Amino acid sequence: xxxxxxxxxxxxxxxxxxxxxxxxxxxxxxxxxxxxxxxxxxxxxxxxxxxxxxxxxxxxxxxxxxxxxxxxxxxxxxxxxxxxxxxxxxxxxxxxxxxxxxxxxxxxxxxxxxxxxxxxxxxxxxxxxxxxxxxxxxxxxxxxxxxxxxxxxxxxxxxxxxxxxxxxxxxxxxxxxxxxxxxxxxxxxxxxxxxxxxxxxxxxxxxxxxxxxxxxxxxxxxxxxxxxxxxxxxxxxxxxxxxxxxxxxxxxxxxxxxxxxxxxxxxxxxxxxxxxxxxxxxxxxxxxxxxxxxxxxxxxxxxxxxxxxxxxxxxxxxxxxxxxxxxxxxxxxxxxxxxxxxxxxxxxxxxxxxxxxxxxxxxxxxxxxxxxxxxxxxxxxxxxxxxxxxxxxxxxxxxxxxxxxxxxxxxxxxxxxxxxxxxxxxxxxxxxxxxxxxxxxxxxxxxxxxxxxxxxxxxxxxxxxxxxxxxxxxxxxxxxxxxxxxxxxxxxxxxxxxxxxxxx
Length: 504
What we know:
Layout: H1 3-7, H2 15-32, H3 58-63, H4 87-99, H5 101-121, E1 127-130, E2 133-138, E3 149-163, H6 168-235, H7 240-274, H8 301-304, H9 309-330, E4 335-339, E5 345-349, E6 361-362, E7 366-370, H10 378-445, H11 450-484, H12 497-500
Helix pairs in contact: 4-6, 5-6, 6-7, 6-9, 6-11, 9-10, 10-11
């Protein structure tokens, strides 16, 4: 054997070992895709009636659109507020998704959940670390095997990899994906909630404007009545108490008119914050409500399960919890992997010149098996804990569904009852106006005193205010019904498992 052959042995003398390692790795890769222990997820059933109990408002029933409508009809997907045809409301609602800070936080949490998928996915691959060192050492000259001063150059590469034979890693990845889907549904539920809250505040503000408008008209009317009593007092046909009563009525109405500015300012400030603005940046014009609630297609009860983001969130939480059971079950089986242990792969030399060279290589790698033989019941308790957590998510899902049906029924009933009440109140306003006209005529004729006029004025104002309040409540109930129906959202907009794994 010549010198070169002795210094550099033929590569084929390493083949048996290399082949064994390669075959071991391939076997582990094959086994890692072999099975997944634990339960397969099936969406649990939820209580869904065949029809809603409450009937729609009379005006809605006439349109024949109430139950036949599909989820995507009537209410525009995403921009459901456009059903009210209010340009100022539209502009404010557009700002919620752009500037609302709570939504920005929820969006950041969704991105956080997507990166968690990437972190979980990385566990399918080996972990490789490099720790290069240069060590100068001097041994004692009195030592038995003294080598004097020596410099050692090390470039160890540590490699570890655990085969996912029982599906623990794959279930962790799936769990992270389902958690990201739940986070997206939670984001959409928050978006819908803030949009609905803004619309409610907007109509409450408009209701306040309606009451202010009513009181402004009332103040003008009371001013005319005060002039009437003063003229009659000057003519000697009315007493000073009539004038005092008319003056009191007028000043009381003026005080009430001023008081409405407090509520209006608070609604305007709340709307500004929901739109992500400082209160000083938002000024909303004065205008009363000029419309009645539009038709909101309700659809069939079975469709509601696909139309609400909070239901989707609860359902994805169940799927995530199911994966945790599989992960807990995988802990009962041995883990198998490849590791470099304490003698890793790398390069070592006492010469910097020959440090990065093939003869400086060293390695020690092989498969390993680890099995827990005793843990005082820890794994069993962990499994039972995850089963209990899953049962809790099932109960939460079913309760979320029940609450959704309750909210739909509540607001359909509210709209129906309030429509009937509005019709009755309109008749009351007409009757009160007629009574005031009669008492005013009688007062001018001298057959009744001014107290009769004041009484009828108070009744009319009360009925008129109540009519404005009922209309405001109807608009608010309309918004709440749209929110209860998911605001035009449906499960098809939920990102797929593939989508949540894509991060930038």
